[in-house]
Amino acid sequence: MSFSANASLGYASFVGLRYSFSRKRNRFTAVIAAVSMLGMVLGVASLIVVLSVMNGFAAELRGRILSLVPHGYVEQRASIDDWRALAAQLEQREDIVAVSPYLTDKVILGSARSVRGAVLTAIDPQREARVSEVAARMRAGSLDGLAGPGFNVVLGASLAGMLGVGPGDQVEVTLPRLTVTPLGVFPRSKRLTVSGVFEVGAQPDSYQAYVSLATGQRLLAAGERVHGLQVRTPDLHAAPGIMASLAAELGAGYQVKDWSRTQGSLFRAVKMEKVMVSLLLLSVVAVAAFNIVSTLVMSVTEKRRDIAVLRTLGARPRGIIAIFVAHGLALAAVGIVAGALIGVTLALNIADLTAALERLFGVKLFDPAVYFISELPAQLQWADVAMVAGASLLLSLLATLYPAWRAARIAPAEVLRYE
Predict the structure, then answer these.
(1) Are residues 26 and 337 in contact, defined by beta-carbon separation less than 8 angstroms?
(2) DSSP string, 155-189
(3) What are φ and ψ of residue 199, in 5° steps?
(4) CB neighbours of 19 closer than 8 A, spacing ≥ 6?
(5) What span, in angstroms and rounded, lies between the C-alpha atoms of 418 and 287?
(6) Which of 15, 127, 256, 308 could form a disulfide with 415 if both were Cys (CB 3.0 to 4.6 A apart)?
């Protein structure tokens, strides 16, 4: 009696599964196999949960920061004199939704309570509402209040909190400009009235301040000039291509940038951090996969007599290899499936779980004043689940090859001689 090629591969999975889940295994071997599966469960579940949380943080970061950031900028080396003509030219393009002028500089804001550095940006409130979401993020007052009588300013929520001011209060702004008087040279300063407070729940809340374009031009002595134009496109992700075509149209006299150049390094860092954390956590899966090596080596030693009998009946070496590959993959598959189910469940309910822990222990894990979030964000991506499962299965397959090869090299005559 001999096994054909198809038969040898057909029975291999059956025998391998019997070896994996038989109750007659050596107890120590069974414990090692259980530890291997448990390690696979923990590794896969941890990877899925951590990747989902990092996706959630990246989405929060992207949504909050990019809500204030225009899709693109058009600037000249010094400043733009006739910005209205350039804005009208840009707005004629079908791939540009809105254009808004701006002036910006670093300043010092002071109050009776504190002094803080800030970025002062002069905007046209009506045009600004079309290129960014700052008008929709107002916590007190409105962006249109900048155009009211007097010199008004809108502050980020954290900046206003550090200065101890609110709507109706006044702050002293000191600019990097010098004023020459008979008494000497002094830095230019002006008292501004806080007309509103915005909050996006990100870092700009702690340093950004807005004034009207007319106020900014007077403070910065810019006349009718502006530093550049902010541009909004129909799609954030299409902005790099649109701004590149705009740069070719305007020529070398203009500097054209898109959001990926001004904020892209931040999101590239987040992406790189996700990759590095994935590789580190994948080492947990690798350790579990190498535990499968120990399990299979012990199983090969335990099943030497069975291997010899199968070889005597006509089983080929590749059939023996297939048996132990199936044996190892069956153990790994149980751990991967269980880990994926646990990881997906945790990722989908991580916000509720953290809230329950906060109520149980009476602590606040994520203080909005520190982390800008009130709960742990998570965004499950099925591509990540598939990647984790595939990588784990591949590592498990590689771990089974050496023990399976050793099993195939067992000489049946030598084993049966001593049995």
Answers:
(1) no
(2) EEHHHHHHHT--TT-EEEEEEEEEEEETTEEEEEE
(3) -150, 120
(4) 25, 299, 303, 323, 324, 327
(5) 36
(6) 308
The β-bridge partners of 231 are: 72, 99
The tokens for 45 are: 């579940």
Report phi then psi at 315, rounded to 5: -65, 135
For the CA atoms of 93, 99, 103, 105, what is the dihedral angle to 10 degrees?
Answer: -90
Measured between alpha carbons, how far is 211 from 194 in angstroms, rounded to an integer?
A: 10
Question: Domain-by-domain residue ranges, the chain?
Answer: 5-63+267-417, 71-259
The owner of tokens 């840009």 is 90
The Cα 66–Cα 55 span in angstroms is 16
The pTM of the full predicted model, rounded to 2 decimals, is: 0.66
The pairs formed by 357-363 with CB atoms below 8 angstroms and a separation of 24 or more are none
pLDDT computed for residue 31 by the predictor: 78
Question: Residue 5 has what pLDDT?
Answer: 47
Q: Per the structure block, which two tokens stand in for 80? A: 């733009």
What is each CA distance from 255 to 57, 80, 111, 163, 216, in whole angstroms?
A: 32, 11, 37, 35, 22
Minimum mean pLDDT among 87-96, 162-171, 205-214, 289-298: which range?
289-298
Question: Percent of the chain scored above 70 by pLDDT?
Answer: 84
Instruction: Determine the Cα–Cα distance for residues 109 and 207; give it in Å rounded to an integer.
Output: 10
Instruction: Summarize pLDDT for 107-155 with one digit per residue, the tens.
Output: 999 998 889 999 999 999 989 888 888 888 888 888 888 988 888 999 9
What is the SS3 assignment for 235? coil
Distance, in Å, from the CA atom of 397 to the CA atom of 147, rounded to the nearest integer, reads: 67
Contacts of 198 (CB under 8 A, 6+ apart): 134, 137, 138, 139, 143, 154, 155, 156, 157, 205, 208, 210
What angle separates helix 317-348 from helix 5-21, to the nearest 10 degrees?
Answer: 50
Q: Which one-letter DSSP state was computed for residue 69?
A: S
- pLDDT band with cut points at 50, 70 and 90 for residue 324: confident
